Structure to design on (196 residues):
């Protein structure tokens, strides 16, 4: 990796850590410059504005983290219900990128930015759509394979699972404890097994 690309990536990673912990609107460019120890000129060489950097964080850091494991989970199993459970379990309890005390970065940015920033809305919507498309397709495949009952509506299951995930992330953030995830995971497993 060239020095310029390495510097850009370092800015994104350090800025993400600040934004994830403090929020987007309360993190200033000066905060980012102080943390990264780059000059203001170096920051503006890589990003014309804070929003350009914010979109790069979503597209280059958050999106790959939240979607790559998701797609892989469904490619490696014939049982989408098991894959859904294992994926949510991993995201809540095992993923080092996601911190319980800060919640879900995509959900945080959605709540903070989408009411007034169309570009952020679009970038975050892409993450949601990737999850939606992959999960619906896996559930439909499970119906074809006889793993899931035919009358199950894949889009409704997907919406329910995604809503539950975003919600429990917020409870985890409030409690600052992963223990809050355990009863949710137990009920998620019960729900998914009922779809068989």
């Amino acid at each position: 990796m060239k020095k310029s690309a390495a510097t850009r990536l370092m800015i994104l990673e350090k800025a993400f850590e600040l934004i994830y912990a403090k929020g987007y609107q309360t993190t200033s460019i000066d905060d980012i410059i102080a943390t990264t120890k780059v000059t203001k000129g170096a920051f503006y060489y890589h990003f014309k504005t804070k929003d350009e950097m914010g979109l790069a964080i979503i597209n280059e850091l958050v999106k790959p983290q939240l979607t790559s494991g998701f797609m892989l989970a469904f490619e490696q199993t014939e049982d989408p219900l098991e894959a859904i459970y294992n994926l949510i379990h991993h995201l809540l309890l095992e993923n080092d990128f996601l911190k319980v005390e800060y919640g879900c970065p995509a959900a945080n940015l959605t709540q903070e930015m989408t009411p007034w920033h169309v570009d952020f809305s679009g970038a975050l919507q892409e993450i949601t759509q990737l999850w939606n498309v992959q999960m619906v397709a896996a559930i439909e495949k499970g119906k074809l394979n006889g793993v899931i009952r035919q009358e199950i509506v894949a889009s409704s299951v997907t919406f329910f699972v995604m809503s539950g995930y975003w919600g429990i992330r917020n409870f985890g953030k409030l409690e600052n404890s992963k223990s809050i995830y355990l009863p949710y995971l137990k009920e998620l497993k019960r729900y998914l097994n009922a779809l068989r």
Observations:
- The chain has nine helices and no strands.
- The chain has a mean pLDDT of 93.
- The radius of gyration is 19 Å.
